[in-house]
Write a structure and sequence with these properties.
Elements lengths: L2 H11 L4 E5 L5 H8 L5 E4 L3 H15 L3 E5 L3 H4 L2 H10 L3 E7 L15 H5 L5 E4 L6 H13 L5 E7 H5 L19 H13 L3 E5 L8 H12 L3 E3 L14 E4 L9 H6 L2 E5 L17 E6 L13 E4 L2 H12 L7 H15 L11 H11 L5 E4 L3 H9 L8 E2 L10 H11 L5 E6 H6 L3 H7 L4 E7 L4 H9 L14 H8 L2 E4 L6 H11 L2 E7 L3 H12 L6
Parallel strand pairs: 1-2, 1-3, 3-4, 4-6, 5-6, 7-8, 7-10, 8-9, 10-11, 11-12, 13-14, 13-15, 15-16, 16-18, 17-18
Amino acid sequence: MKASDLLIKALENEGVEYIFAVPGEENLDVLESLRKSDRIRLILTRHEQGAAFMAAIYGRLTGKAGVCMATLGPGATNFVTPAAYAQLGAFPLIMITGQKPIKKSKQGRFQIVDVVGLFKPITKLSTQIVHGNTIPALVRESFRIAEEERPGAVLLELPEDIAAEDCDAVPFPPHSRFYASAQDDVIATAADLISKAKQPLVIIGAGSNRRKVRGALCDFVHTTRLPFVTTQMGKGVVDERSELCLGTAALSDGDYLHCAIDRSDLIINFGHDVVEKPPFFMEHGGKTVIHVNYKAAQVDQVYFPQLEIIGDLEQSVKNLTAKIGKVTFDAAYFEKVKANIKEHVEEGREDPRFPIIPQRVVGDVRKVIGDEDIIALDNGIYKVWFARNYAAHFPNTVLLDNALATMGAGLPSAMMAALLYPDRRVMAICGDGGFMMNSQEIETALRLKLNLVVTVLNDGSYGMIRWKQAQYGFDDWGLEFSNPDFVKYAESYGAHGHRVNSAESLVETFESAFRAGGVHVIDVPVDYSENKKVLIDELQDRVCLI
């Protein structure tokens, strides 16, 4: 068969459901082969970033690699940011890009860059397909590499003359992956350390946010009765309504929950991923850290665990639970810290000020979002507020990026969630800056007939960087801009536009949008003056309980 037909057969063989794409001339053979597929759906987006962000979030939510496609040159280079997003975030992603013929003239150097070389530093594999008969092996290997721990991005470049050639290979059947278990003596050593600790604490990181790990970690926490803290990307692995949950380490240091981290003499760190901002610094000294993950720790002056449990994370957690049982220790200090954190986190949730303060926004979003409903955060200072103040009840119900931390991914992420889970409420939460980076995907959302609420937090500036300016004592300068009328902007696409005019109207605006269905863009004026007050000034005056 034609090589492009074989490519589609190989993708079907891997269980691919969607290809997100902005095709070009060099993809036309693949596009024609895809047209004939009755198993893979083409999702046409308005920008290559939108396609690849959606594919990456498909990988995050399902554990199966998402697939996207673009042409050569500018199409391929627009995949760079989503490739880094998937690679740092550990989301399995397959990118397929076109290229000019490699067996004859390349029409000068028109649109030609070394795409394979460009992507090598930001992918797990970047390679060119040079013969149609290698497609089955390369596709099977790409999915294996993209999906195995630690997941990430893969790029396959398919030149147009290779796509058109005849070949006689057949797809390789996919197979399950199994990971080795940690040795019994290591589990025993860890159990002994935990049983002897005076104030042990669990931290749940990004690597724990895998589909099979949740049950084992919930059993561990509620069997041992050990208090836990999550990182931003570990939110929801264990229900944060648990009486054992102290909160989320939205900052690396100096927050109220760091009083508990600093007091603990032993930290059991599940799924730590060095790409996240560290939830604590070991250079403070005085504690032992047990690293439990699929792979060994990357050691530096910030993180140097004294014991590592390496292997299948789910099995390691189960083995620890069986070995330890309930742990006896003095939890009184942790309980004091939890009460102190709760007091600060709940402050401002009913504040009537307008424009609306972030605490009120977080509280009102939590009121309308169910246990398994999903919020997808773009990148901005509000991400810190949601990480800190928003309790997640299930894994991947708070889609935030604490790895590449790119702007522009929030809307496509929410679109993917809405496409996969049409019966759940899905809300994109974007700053005005991040929303405008990929706002054209509103048309894609409408074409897909998604039910989606897009909340745009409008302060007319790049708020995260203004907060950093204040934190470093610089003048507030150079970061303000003007916005379009977001209501009219939404309506110009055929979406529903809303503008909130009071704090009291926010919940009802959310509810009416969800009840109506379709795509809604809600302009929410926000007052970020609380950033400096709460996240800088008050924390500088923080005194840990005795």
